[in-house]
From TrEMBL:
UniProt entry tagged with the keyword Ligase: no
Source organism of the structure: Adineta ricciae (Rotifer)
Domain SET: 4-315
Name this polypeptide is given: Uncharacterized protein
Keywords: Metal-binding, Zinc, Zinc-finger
Length: 403
């Protein structure tokens, strides 16, 4: 990672971790990263541009947005140029298949991540088609999958999504890649690279599904299974490593922020979690001189010494108990247990950060007390946190006021 302030080390309890390789001052920008496979949330798709992911100033209805040329009603755009760009690069492959995915009856959450993985597969296709030497898919493929830790219910859900996306690759993408020197089956094998956890995966795929696929697409059952297993692992990777893009533009600064898009930021995926993190983050909502829409910016909420692990939070910071004047011990214990349960369910680990250790004993954590004092917006009712500005000041991400 050239000129980076971060190095990667491996530890037994957390796997790969980012540590800073120099002193970092409070407020300093530590890392900026671009998204891979960014898509709007299904519930915001009618008013977020599916190409540039810009957020309109006011929540406009879909009739003010530009439809896709096939009027599929799954993507909308802020301009004709965005429609053209998305069509040429991605949507001409995805458009007809999106109907099939939306008809299955998946929840909005499943639909959103299915679309996102579909986009990552189309990007992979685009990279193969254009023989892109800078393969960003390889960066996604290095991320952890935690494939063995998901519950049976989640495994069944991922299997259903992997099946439909296997069909997507077989019908919409691989046929465009096969030519005289590369036959269909070989392309199916090589579409996604090999990976050790794919070999260890055990999914009981029904024979009837395999038979249908092998007859319909004239490929071997082994090639079909390999592709299915690789896509299953890609789903696990996405679920463990994705970031939700959030904004206060929809519901205002007295409400919690709304999720409007989802993306993987492959270079940022080695940040581990702490409930009292030393890094904060914000998303760029509009192109500027330094940043592009969708970029994620990480900054130091405390100063860090060389060799210290840089952590972010995977959940809401939940400062409420720290803002109240008197807090009951049992309330602190209960809220820590609830937060840990959520982390375990979604990210599959037990949090042992200093805040969790203190709160599990009913004590408010002093590092988080400082964080709230220094970074929580002090405006009454505002739910936002402060972020750094270009001129070394702080501004509230939600209401825009300065302390
Ligand atoms: C986005 S990845 C972070 C990078 C990861 N450590 C790796 O090796 O690729 C998220 C995963 O890292 C691990 N992780 C993150 N924060 C952790 C923490 N505080 N304690 C234990 N494991 C953690 C969990 O396995 C989690 O699912």
């Amino acid at each position: 990672m050239a000129e980076s302030k971060l190095d990667i080390i491996i530890t037994q309890d957390k796997g790969r971790c980012f540590v800073v390789n120099q002193h970092v001052s409070q407020g300093e920008i530590v890392f900026i990263c671009q998204p891979y496979g960014i898509v709007p949330f299904v519930i915001t798709k009618d008013f977020i541009c599916a190409n540039c992911i810009c957020i309109p100033k006011e929540r406009t209805s879909s009739n003010k947005m530009i439809e896709c040329r096939q009027k599929c009603h799954h993507t909308f755009y802020c301009s004709d140029q965005c429609e053209q760009h998305d069509w040429d690069k991605f949507h001409k492959y995805e458009c007809s298949f999106l109907d099939k995915i939306f008809e299955i009856g998946f929840t909005n959450y499943i639909l959103t991540y299915t679309r996102q993985i579909m986009r990552m597969l189309t990007l992979r296709f685009y990279e193969i088609m254009n023989k892109s030497c800078v393969s960003k898919f390889e960066d996604v493929w290095k991320l952890c999958s935690n494939y063995e830790k998901f519950t049976m219910k989640t495994k069944d859900e991922y299997e259903a999504v992997a099946k439909i996306l296997t069909e997507y690759v077989l019908t919409q993408l691989v046929p465009h890649l096969t030519s005289g020197d590369m036959d269909f089956t070989r392309m199916v094998y090589s579409f996604l690279p090999d990976r050790a956890d794919v070999e260890k995966l055990s999914i009981n795929v029904s024979n009837s599904w395999i038979n249908t696929m092998t007859h319909t697409y004239s490929i071997s059952s082994d090639a079909c299974k390999q592709l299915l297993f690789k896509i299953y692992i890609l789903i696990c990777i996405e679920e463990i490593n994705s970031f939700f893009l959030t904004t206060f533009l929809f519901d205002g600064w007295t409400q919690s922020c709304s999720k409007y898009a989802v993306a993987v930021y492959p270079q940022a995926s080695f940040f581990n979690h702490s409930c009292s993190p030393n890094l904060g983050r914000f998303f760029i909502e509009k192109d500027g001189d330094t940043f592009r829409t969708g970029d994620i910016v990480f900054f130091a909420m405390r100063s860090l010494e060389k060799g210290e692990e840089a952590c972010i939070t995977y959940t809401n910071l939940e400062p409420e108990l720290y803002i109240q004047e008197l807090v009951d011990t049992s309330e602190i214990i209960k809220s820590q247990a609830k937060r840990n349960e959520r982390l375990k369910e979604i990210f599959l680990f037990d949090c042992n950060c200093v805040r969790c250790i203190n709160e599990s004993k009913g004590i408010l954590d002093s590092s988080f007390v400082t964080l709230v004092k220094e970074f929580k917006c002090s405006k009454t009712d505002c739910t936002g946190w402060l972020i750094p500005t270009v001129d070394d000041c702080k501004i509230c991400e939600a209401c825009g006021s300065s302390p």
